[in-house]
Amino acid sequence: MGSWVLGLAKQESIRSFENLAKTVMIHVRHLTKHYSDLQRGPIVALSDVSFDAFPGQIYGLLGPNGAGKTTALRILSTILRPTRGQVTVNGFDVVRQASEVRRQIGVVSANTAIYDRMTGREFVEYFGRLHGLDRATLQERIEAVFANLQMGASQDLLGSKLSSGMRQKVSIARALIHDPPVLIFDEATCGLDVLVARALLRNVAELRDQGKCVVFSTHIMREAERLCDRLAIVYRGRILAEGTLDSLREQYGEEDLEELFFQLIEGERCP
Amino acid sequence: MSLTSIRLIWFRELRDQLRDRRTIFSIAILPLVLYPLMGMVFLQVAQFLREHPTEVKLMGAAELATDPALVEGDRFAAAFCPPEESQLLNLTVSSWVLEEGETYAGRATAAIRGGPYDAVVVFPHSFSARLSAFRKHLCSAADDRDVGASELAAQIPAPEIFVNLANDKSRIARDRLERILQRWREAIVRETLRDSRFPIEATEPFRIQATDVSEESLRRAAVWSKLLPFIVLIWALTGAFYPAIDLCAGEKERGTLETLLCSPALRSEIVWGKLLTVTTFSTVTALLNLFSLALTGILLFGRLSRMGDVAMRVELGAPPLGAFFWLLVTIVPIAALFSGLALAVASFARSSKEGQYYLMPLLLIMLPLMTLPMLPAVELNLGFSMLPVAGMMLWLRALIEGEYLLAARHAVPVIGVTMACCWLAIRWAEHQFQSEEVLFRESERFGPRLWLRHLMRDRQDTPTATLAFGCGLLILMITFLASVQATAPADWSALATRVVFTQLGLIAAPAVLSAWLLTRRPGRSLLWHAAPRGSGLAAVALAVALHPWVLVLGTGIRRVYPLGEETLRALEPLVAAISQAPLWQVLLVVALVPAVCEELAFRGLILTGLRRLGSDTAAILISSLFFGLTHGMLQQSLAATLVGMLIGLIAVQTGSLWPCILFHATHNSLAIGAARLGEYVSTQGGLEWLVYEQVGPLGGELHYRGAVLLVSLMFSTLLLVWFRTLSRSDTVNS
Fold first, then answer.
1. pLDDT tens digits, one per residue of B337-372
2. Is residue A160 less than 8 Å (CB to CB) from chain B?
3. Is 3.40.50.300 the CATH classification of the domain at A2-113+181-269?
4. Hey, is the C-beta of A96 within 8 angstroms of any chain B C-beta?
């Protein structure tokens, strides 16, 4: 039944892909976030950031460390509150309807670890139940998700015994358990070896193909180049450029994304 | 909030903790092993102490040629020192004569400090001769006996025991020596009486007998009722703290907190789930420790009493079963209170290591509250019952001792205060989990210079909550230090000088300086705005309308927490000074100056800053607590806290300091007026329709008639409703 649910979702998504693509899933307008720092004074982590992301698309946030990607994604996942600006996810406001927003999203980030003293299966089951799934549906979803991620026997090992690749798989399973329309990956390949990272990117691409709206933040050009349908280049809390990869190449007359990226950042440093 | 989510989180955290070997060790294994181990060590130590004899030197043996002999050969005579005691005394006898320039004390001190001796007993020169002369005199003819007997007795030099009380062994040696010498003196008395043909019964014509009518179980309860609550509370706190650190700081460290925050569980559900977990562990830790300790205690004391050591034969049987029942009933709210506190404190910490540092301050705050009920004179009454933790402990004691009527009378305040504290602690924990600064605090470099620069550079329009807290604490500290240093003012002018100095220098100045230096808009920070139309008048009217109830409040507080004798004596000259000073001066110094200064500080800077916490209620509560605490005396503090809340409400509703100052000044003036009116009524009479007088601890107390109270209540309510209709001022900005 699990694969049936997934299959249904896939069919559904393909059938209504045209409609869905027109509906904005993530809507960010003038998002600004300040916080204070003893040494540096008030810090502007995000300044007037606006973008939209659609279902069946991977929206990439590309930027160096400390650019504000994680802050933006934490606001999207309602962990932080914006200082100014409006953010909606599937029509729900991240400030006023935070718990609704959390039902619409699955978050995988370098900061969302798994519990050491719980097995992978228990962990995913726990989050499934927090999402209010009933027992039968939950078991089906677990089987489906685990089969899809090829979890194997390691699902019954304690978190502390798992390799980082397996941990990441458990995290993805946790994010997918309630079949959310939006998935957020924040530096998700960080610390993974090439093989595991490659498998993860394949999983993300599959999710897009199922019609999910995926937001993918990274500082690795190749990942962004291979995966993202649209890209925002983020630097010092601002979006420097935004669009499809082709449109960016066209706009800046630069084929290589890495060159393009440096060009933009250099321009920002010495305007 | 969904109960299912809370239960899910609760059970998961429980399972998680139980899978941690460290937790199992500290909550279950440690108590079960620790107490028997401690008991064994204690037995060993007791044995060790008993088996070590003390070294005693006797100086001046030549002076002991008396009958009966105190010393036989190189030990005390068996009649005064039975063999089992004699074994524990290594006696060195020296027939020593004082040499030129030598003193008893010098020689004895040298023997203790330098030599192996724990105690030295010295029989001074001519002791024996004088004693014999006295005894001979008593044996002479009965008629001459009375003459000169006391002079002769006074001439007997006192034998002296030299000890070093800083040393426990020396102390034990003294006790043993005293027992032996006492028996010897009694023998001398007996012999002297016999020689002078006086019946020995004359020294003890009757005996005094004390009969303990308490039931054995109650006697046991009296010991346990002090011990058990203390142990349970200490362990409840410890048992709450470590899981709380793991559940907050530990999760932050391991990166799992953010995973949970992304789930649909509300922050309040997360807090409640964690709180229930911590409470469970706190309760279980306390109970396991209790169980293990009680068991070890029973075995240990049983063993000690069989061994027959007099000093150790404490009457401590098994704790009464009822004690466990009452402990079980009360442990849960106490554990919940501690858990809320521990969770809120632990959520500050970024790592488990940092969390450990927070245990000590929490313990230091709790410890006085836990030890207070152990003091001998402290018993359950209305005043103590309203103290958090201490009240609960006293209540528990009453229940264990079977004083159900007393416990029932205080059930409402004890349970009410505990519940209120629980609620506050849980709200605090919830607030911590809502706060980004707390959850995502990163390690920062910290230094005084950096911090001062930050204060100046990152000044905001109005004070931050931290600045408000800092200013409040500063005012509390300096007013306290000043009050400790100062001597009681001698007359009115000294009193007036002191009040004006405290108000201007120690209360208003810190607030005004903070606002001026550390905020961008000092006026706004101090609430220096125009008041809404009519609010000044309404504030004055409210102060007048509430005045009779303020008097009722004062009397009520003094009834619950009576003024101590010393306080009354200290207050008398002040009251006299105020009553004799010219009225305009009193009004200026005691009513107007404090109204302006205290309002600038407490409703100005502190309340404005605290409102940035996000809750006006919390801001009003905390600012009034600061306001109350600066008043020093408990009775005044309580009244001031309540009045402070009311002024806080006026400040928040009107957004201006003016109505607050007017209310405060009117309130103070009326208090002075009431004192003067009281004097007038008591000397001149009259005004019976309005007031009557009763004798209170500080002389005459003024009371308003019932009808006046009713009218005052009506007007106050109307005025308060009017204040509530004002649109609440918004001072919360970033």
1. 899 889 888 888 888 888 888 888 888 888 888 888
2. no
3. yes
4. no
